[in-house]
């Protein structure tokens, strides 16, 4: 009897030790500038998760594509790796085409539209299908910024971009968006964009002000045209397999802190946007304000019908969700 009690106590001790074991979680991001709002948000998230979990989850931030480009990281996550990734809906469209629509040109009339869609039943359905593929969304709605065109000439109308080679992120939605205005889009990982512009592999690129400045792209191209063609949300993801392997309380902490940090990142991005625009101007960049946005909106409408393997009717359902008050 005594031996049984001792064995039981030993088992309980081992179980307790397993519960207390630290989960080492690497958080991958392509952002190189640690002063950008998105990086600051990751730092805040990591600190809060570690504090709430009493050290049971430790997050190490791997910035500047230290672990590889987004697609590689997302593939590792899908395969079950203990990773988080700062990615976006366009990149996730490589795995689930429907989700790429959330990164479409002029998809949202306002941030309020986006908020309604990202907290709607149709979003829950699509993100659930992504989770079934192995990628679970922890943070869905952090504003990364308004994307604009960077070139060596002003781009005021779709005619100005005709036949221009433009770097786009690996995203079926972005490829179709730029094809629809007559450009020649080329998928290049973010870490290679500076060299691609410098060596004229591409004529132009597109990104938010903070990313252009943070990666020094203004050193190789000197005109930013304020097309605002995409309101880009970053979404933070992890492996469904990894997430489900965690105790319930740790899963809850990750998801609750993800929901908490999204709106905070949006506020930080909005507050910093004008400052980064001014930094670009101070560095000698010309910012073109008189862009014919309605012309770009009209020209890019057809892109939504050309993304391969989209579920019939899903675009209409998303637009209905945004229109719901």
Write the topology of this structure.
Blueprint: H1 2-20, E1 23-28, H2 37-52, E2 57-62, H3 70-78, E3 83-88, H4 89-92, H5 111-118, H6 121-133, E4 135-151, E5 165-168, H7 172-179, E6 184-187, H8 193-198, E7 205-207, H9 209-214, E8 223-239, H10 240-245, H11 248-282, E9 286-288, H12 293-300, H13 314-323
Parallel strand pairs: 1-2, 1-3, 5-6, 8-9
Antiparallel strand pairs: 3-8, 4-7, 4-8
Helix pairs in contact: 2-11, 5-13
Account of the 3D structure:
This protein is of the alpha/beta class and 325 residues long. It has a single domain (2-96, 104-318), classed as 3-Layer(aba) Sandwich (D-Maltodextrin-Binding Protein, domain 2), CATH 3.40.190.170. 46% of the residues lie in helices and 20% in strands. It is built from 13 helices and 9 strands. Strands 1, 2, 3, 4, 7, 8 and 9 form a 7-stranded mixed beta sheet that branches. Strands 5-6 form a two-stranded parallel ribbon. β5 (165-168), α7 and β6 form a beta-alpha-beta unit. α5 packs across α13. The radius of gyration is 22 Å and the shape is globular. The termini are far apart. The model is unreliable at 1-19 (pLDDT under 50).
Overview features:
13 helices, seven-stranded mixed beta sheet, D-Maltodextrin-Binding Protein, domain 2, 20% strand, globular, 9 strands, 325 residues, alpha/beta
């Amino acid at each position: 009897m005594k031996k049984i009690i001792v064995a039981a106590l030993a088992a309980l001790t081992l179980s307790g030790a397993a519960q207390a074991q630290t989960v080492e979680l690497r958080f991958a991001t392509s952002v190189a500038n640690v002063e950008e709002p998105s990086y600051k948000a990751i730092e805040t998230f990591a600190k809060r998760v570690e504090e709430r979990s009493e050290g049971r989850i430790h997050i190490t931030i791997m910035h500047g594509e230290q672990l590889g480009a987004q697609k590689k990281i997302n593939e590792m996550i899908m395969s079950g790796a203990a990773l988080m990734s700062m990615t976006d809906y366009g990149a996730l469209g490589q795995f689930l085409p429907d989700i790429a629509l959330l990164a479409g040109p002029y998809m949202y009339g306002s941030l309020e539209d986006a908020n309604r869609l990202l907290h709607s039943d149709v979003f829950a359905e699509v993100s659930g299908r992504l989770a079934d593929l192995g990628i679970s969304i922890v943070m869905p709605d952090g504003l990364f910024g308004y994307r604009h065109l960077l070139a060596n000439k002003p781009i005021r109308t779709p005619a100005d971009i005709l036949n221009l080679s433009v770097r786009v992120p690996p995203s079926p939605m972005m490829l179709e968006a730029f094809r629809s205005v007559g450009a020649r889009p080329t998928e290049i990982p973010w870490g290679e964009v500076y060299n691609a512009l410098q060596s004229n592999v591409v004529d132009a690129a597109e990104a938010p002000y903070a990313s252009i400045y943070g990666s020094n792209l203004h050193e190789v191209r000197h005109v930013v045209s304020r097309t605002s063609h995409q309101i880009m949300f970053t979404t933070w993801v992890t492996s469904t397999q990894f997430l489900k392997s965690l105790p319930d309380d740790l899963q809850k902490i990750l998801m609750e802190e993800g929901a908490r940090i999204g709106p905070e990142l949006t506020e930080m991005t909005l507050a910093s946007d004008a400052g980064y625009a001014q930094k670009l101007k101070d560095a000698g960049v010309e910012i073109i304000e008189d862009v014919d946005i309605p012309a770009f909106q009209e020209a890019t409408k057809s892109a939504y019908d050309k993304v391969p393997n989209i579920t019939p009717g899903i675009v209409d359902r998303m637009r209905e969700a945004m229109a719901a008050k």
